[in-house]
Amino acid sequence: MSTQYPILGSPLKVNGVTLQNRMITTSMSPGEGYAENGKATQRLANYLEERAAGKTGLIIQTVCPWKRNSDIGEGGIHLHPLPSCYGDECIPNLKEMMVGPVHKHDGKICAQIYAVHDWKFESDECEGPYGPTDIAVLKFMGGFRAMTIEQIEEFKREYFNAARVCKEAGFDAIEVMAGVGGIMSRFMSKATNNRTDQYGGSLENRCRLTVEVLQGVREVVGPDYPIVVRWSPVDFIKTDAGEGLDIEEAKQIVPILEEAGLDLHDLAVGWHETSVPLTTKRIEDGHWMWIAEQIKSVAKKPVAQGYRNTDPTVMEQNLKDGKCDAIAGLRYSIADPDLPRKVMEDRTADMRKCIVCCRCIDDVVSGGKPLVYCGVNPHFGPELDHEMYPKAAKKKKVMVIGSGPAGINAAVAACERGHQVDLYEAGPRLGGCVKMSSIFSPYHERYLDYMNHLIESHPAINVHLKTPVDASVVKAAKPDAVVVAVGGDVRGLDVPGADGKNVIQSHNFLEMLNGHKPKAKGAFNNFMWWGATTVLKMHYTPEFARKATGSLSWPISKNVAIIGGGLPGCEFGHLCMETGRTTAIIEEGKKIGYDVSASERFGMNNDFKKAPNVTTYPLTKVTEITESGVKAIQSDREGNKKEIFIPAKTVAVTLGFKPNHALAESLKGVCDEVYLVGDADEPHRIADATKAGYVAGCAI
């Protein structure tokens, strides 16, 4: 039994089934490649088996209760493929590719029967959004069709049949999807239900469809079989029809659902249409536990809470405080499918924690893409088709140059596969750009710590710090394969004054962390950069640098202009905003945060708009930097231009990186097997570098 996580790692009984711990994965359709023609693929089987082997208490996975006759919905929208559960012919595939891989490891799997927005009434129609009425919260999610009584009856019949199929296939539980703005949750909310029949009006009537579904499923599965309900007690939705669910009304719903047959509350927060930030790193771990605590105050059945649960220490504390009975989430499992096992074995240092980069959500939910990328876990998509580290046919001498996410994942993959690995880093410490991004994005510090732990736990990897590499070093080392992961080249700004005393480059911080004093104008600046570099050579943590950056007025004054409104500029701008600096963010393109996570962009820009100390300047081209600020030409949406001046004592250039192919090009003829990965190849997000390094390490 775990000593650090005694409650999180302990069993939980849900009706007739006992879960081995309190960690539940919520469901998300992984997308293409995980199902084909209504059947789960080996890729999905491998995905599920990883999590079962990792001792997940309950794995919830979505299945589709109707036969798909087209993967194209109305308007040509591509729909995520899902395994089907519409009839007996589906049972063999469900058993073999979903239930079997989980039961192989004594795990428990729950079938979430799909009921989010889309449905099809006629066998030959394409899927489309249905609900109690045609009310759409967002225009781009329009096209809702009000369900007739006949359609409601067919919906229920289909649902009950799917429950029967899933139970016969061997699933351990059924989840009724009545949240996140799906069909049943739209019936429950006054914001989208203004019906005047028995399915509208009073709370009892609005809950009627969910109650009838629960009662019908209970008749099908029997008294001892667990029924989980995914629902949203607070939906943060308002329309002309009315306000959505709030916590007081939700507390009245609890006994209604429990009397109808619910065995476990699986609480989601908000709907897909909600504008309130729900899952981004701006929301602290455990923030939404207040909702679970309120539901638990009136619930007789166990309560699980989902969203913003990524740290087992926080999970344990919330369980200890009695705010919930189980932790529901998905990103912690995407980041590390072995996390529950590590919880039960007290292996805290080995935990690969989610960094809340939202890449999985951005791709699958917002982008309509399959689950291929995670910021910290490369084993998704095509990589799931083989084991994590397939053994190499022949041992090779491998040289990895650069120690960011790409370099470290390449080194570890190559080492795990049996190669002899030497890892070279020009600076005094490992981590690449994550050393710097951890200052501005504290969740990245989790990955920085984990990468260092990975290297420490692979002593066979020979680490060479403070060792710059060029072609001559490679030639002398005589490797069989080289992975070039040296990061991108910094993008500079070519305007008068760009090298002025008051100008700093984002790259200056990385240079300083790598033990090199940045070039600077003026005796004072040179002295200060020398002093800061000397200090950081001896002592560095992201928290130390964060506090120093926040409290000192050098190198960032109290009045800052940031040139570059992409991710680096926005993260730096957010730090300046939080530390009370008067901040201007200047971007030549149309959008501030154009390359920021889709999940975070709205909330981040909203923060900037509300902050009294931040002004944003999109469509603004810098023409000159002076000692007192920035001269620029600003355009409006119609193309009209005007000259402006933005006062600033400090001007920060944060234009990001460009490809850096020089070292790889110089190795032609020196080594036959060269892999160019990460930002050195093409600057992208952390997940791309993590994946690229791993793929290279597995290709050698």
From TrEMBL:
Superkingdom to which the source organism belongs: Bacteria
UniProt domain FAD/NAD(P)-binding: residue ranges: 396-671
Keyword Flavoprotein on entry: yes
GO molecular function, one term: oxidoreductase activity
CDD domains linked to this entry: OYE_like_FMN_family
Similarity annotation: In the N-terminal section; belongs to the NADH:flavin oxidoreductase/NADH oxidase family.
Residue ranges annotated for the NADH:flavin oxidoreductase/NADH oxidase N-terminal domain, each copy included: 10-348
Pfam families: Oxidored_FMN (PF00724), Pyr_redox_2 (PF07992)
Requisite cofactors: FMN; [4Fe-4S] cluster
InterPro entries to which the protein is assigned, alphabetical: Aldolase_TIM (IPR013785), FAD/NAD-bd_sf (IPR036188), FAD/NAD-binding_dom (IPR023753), NADH:flavin_oxidoreductase (IPR051793), OxRdtase_FMN_N (IPR001155)
Protein name as it appears in the record: NADH:flavin oxidoreductase
Keyword flag Metal-binding: yes
